[in-house]
From TrEMBL:
Protein source organism: Pseudonocardia autotrophica
Homology family: Belongs to the methylmalonyl-CoA mutase family.
Descriptive protein name: Methylmalonyl-CoA mutase
Pfam families membership: B12-binding, MM_CoA_mutase
Binding partners and assembly: Heterodimer of an alpha and a beta chain.
Gene Ontology molecular function: any one: methylmalonyl-CoA mutase activity
Lineage: Bacteria, Bacillati, Actinomycetota, Actinomycetes, Pseudonocardiales
Amino acid sequence: MPYPTDRERDRPWVIRTYAGHSSAAKTNELYRRNLAKGQTGLSVAFDLPTQTGYDPDDELAKGEVGKVGVPVSHIGDMRALFDGIPMAEANTSMTINAPAMWLLALYVAVAEEQAEESGLDYSEVRAKLAGTTQNDIVKEYLSRGTYVFPPAPSLRLITDMVAWSVTEIPKWNPINICSYHLQEAGASPTQELSYALCTAIAVLDSVRDSGQVPPEKFGDVVARISFFVNAGLRFVEEMCKMRAFARLWDEITRERYGVENPKQRRLRYGVQVNSLGLTEAQPENNVQRIVLEMLAVTLSKDARARAVQLPAWNEALGLPRPWDQQWALRMQQVLAYETDLLEYEDIFDGSHVVEAKVTELVEGARAEIDRVQEMGGAVAAVESGYMKGELVSSLAAERRRLESGERVVVGVNKFETTEPSPLQAEGAEAIFTVDPETERGAIEAIGAWREARDAGVVEESLRALRDAAKTEQNLMQVSIDCAKAGVTTGEWAGALREVFGEFRAPTGVSAATASGESATEIAEVRERVRATGDELGQRLRMLVGKPGLDGHSNGAEQVAVRARDVGFEVVYQGIRLTPSQIVAAAVQEGVHAVGLSVLSGSHLEVVPSVVRGLRDAGAGEIPVVVGGIIPPDDEKRLREGGIAAVFTPKNYRMTEMMDEIVSLIRKAQGLG
């Protein structure tokens, strides 16, 4: 699937929506509704504490529980998530990376319980389990930020999962190498291809060198490697990119790993079209954007996606409602069932234009792959900061094209006049909001879970996990044992943190090269920054902070680069900071402004904590500004709470933003 053995109409790709919120029980209700509407696969969105290995009652989880996905803290939550959904018949994608082994262990443990309850043979159920764990830690260091452990032990966890899965759950894709977030972080098509394939090479080399899989079974390993890609609006180029991807993957797996079976070398990929490309301004335009992006990965039969999930039109505003997700689901179904797309062989075969573009992309990607391999491979290129610096620079160049008008975004920097939208009419609930009681309920629930379990069994299973982590033993089965013992997500990750340590990835800001929308405008703001500093007798300093667990740092990095370009001394310590850490850094560094970036919806919890902390530290005069996906009602509340300015995606002119921050500093310092 979708490669039929006959000449009949192609079967459609797996149709998914990315979903999860509030609690396992509420998300289970959503899944059942979506399956009843014709969705053919599940795509689990986990909340940020789960993604980064924390329990709901951890300090870093404050404000983040149930916001961007479902909290899964132990086997009880996984049971509730799949209640009434036979896992042996499901096709489940789990967007999880650093703790991917843990979530797969929970999934397998619950599948075993379902088998026992149904009187089925568990080995048969294991053989039927189908789906994917994203499990691509390299792009987490580069773009999304939900990493936990250093690169080497992270690669060890991936290696153990791949080796175990090929034998025990042979239909499962243990890794879904994810170029999606590389594109969001600024990757050109060539960079997206090359960095994703370098990650695949690193994983396959590690599995091969571990000795856990005999050489004659290595084709099975290659056959279970899948990819997860982004499709942007340049849909001709995006389609060519996927044809280039298929060609390069076939070449690498044949020449580097000696895989003879063409079916095992076939590129298998799923798609989420570009969520960060959706606009807050005139959001109804996002509907046609989503449809065009979907065409990029479905038009070409020889490079067609195996699974597709589409965002909702209003994701730039906040969490979509069930109706919005239904609309996105129907877009796929109309294309798959009403059009004649699936009735033809590849409609681009023989196109000179397409072939020329594919060749250009293949050659560019080969050159960049060689460059990274000469550095020692993907992990070395992460640790040195090379790949991150390249992405930050590429995104800065893309922002420059947007700000100059060279790149047109309808409704944002061109054709901005608009009529009032009935989709956002007064009184209409345009986005879904998570009940504030969700977090309190999760904290109470995990407390009750800990009290009800056998503490001795839990401690023994965690001791076995720590001991195994210090050896070369495969950690998959011992993690399943932890799941069955009632260990929590935070405890599993905490045990491995003790052995492996934690990691702070390079930010890429210092290596980035960028300039603004015009040299004149940059120069004018730089002069204001210099003059204000002269009046104060010191250089202006700005702290850019990422409070909470939101790892989408692209915006914060671009703000830091632009602040540096206009003359600020910039303090940027990367992601995953507590409000108290941000306050301490602001006071210690003597900054003149604090800029906070929050994209996870936790702004009403974490931002006021920073403001209160500054006041308590005697630094309440420092203006605090916030950027992120912030609905108008929340913006009003933040301003009433002392926030000096709120910037949302419609404020794309970053030099103007810097100018406004200078004005706020002057006002706070009594300079007029």
